[in-house]
Amino acid sequence: GQMWAGTWGGGLVRFEPLSGRFEIFKYEATLPVNGFRNHIKQLKWINDEELWIIAPYRGLGVFNTRIKRFRFIDSPETGKTRITNPTFIITDSSGFVCLASHSSGIYTTNLKASVFNKVELPCALRIIRPDPVSGQLIAATSNSNSRLLKIDPFTRVFSEYSYTPLADKSENYFIEILP
User: Fold this and answer.
1) Which residues contact 99 (CB under 8 A, 6 or more apart)?
2) What is the pLDDT of residue 32?
3) DSSP 91-106
4) Considering the entire predicted model, what is its pTM?
């Protein structure tokens, strides 16, 4: 067995518990001037050989564990990332993918179509989870005093819910959501 971990600035790490060995993979080989390289916020298995990589300052990527190589989902026309500042990914067995974005809402796609539809939202998102009852998405915003949004990714309609915690110092935000 081995374990995979994303790091904030150190790239992707593979750890072998039996030997205690680490192997480090970076998608940017050069040292960053601004410190915004090799951040990997989330990993999710696609299949036995590939991991989705959520790299907030680089975009949505795939890491192939067999050939040990990164590939990012960029626009073939411009070469720029298709997903701006991704923060979280959810997938299902049908190929549906939904990505939260820190700067511009959510992106959805069916991988067979490989076209991302953008749902503009008035706030940055930290995390999204599917609501197993309604089939909609529950998202937490990134700003202080964060809010929860219930989003229908197909109609693009959303509802907003907020709260005021006790002894609020404007630093309260959701870290995790479990439906």
Assistant:
1) 54, 60, 83, 86, 87, 88, 89, 106, 107, 108, 116
2) 60
3) E-TTSEEEEEETTTEE
4) 0.82
